Amino acid sequence: MKKSILLTSGGIAVIHLLLSIGSVAVAFGSGMEAFENPDYQPSMAERIADSLVEILTQPAMSLWTSWMSKNIPDVVEWGLYLLNSLLWGIALAILLHARTLVDGKKPNNKTIKATS
After folding, report:
1. Which residue has the higher pLDDT, 102 or 26?
2. Residue 42 and residue 65: Cα distance in Å, rounded?
3. DSSP annotation of 88
4. Residue 107 has pLDDT above 50, yes or no
């Protein structure tokens, strides 16, 4: 059971990391046109990517300050970004396996043989 939760956590964390990096890339890349065109209206994809970035980077972004951006090395920033994805993976894996965790492993009475 623990192995299953760990594998699920790792898989969800990888998916979360890829989705959040992809969302940041789309939001940033498509938003560059706004610098050249003052009448720029963001596309639906850019608005969705912006919303995804706001959701997927929580709770790490709620702890982040401008001082941290200027004074913390990039390695630490990437470490926090990875930890954020891992936190999402663990939380979602626990939610997915909640029923099994609560019920625990119950013995299967059909496989128990009576000794006589």
Report:
1. 26
2. 27
3. H
4. no
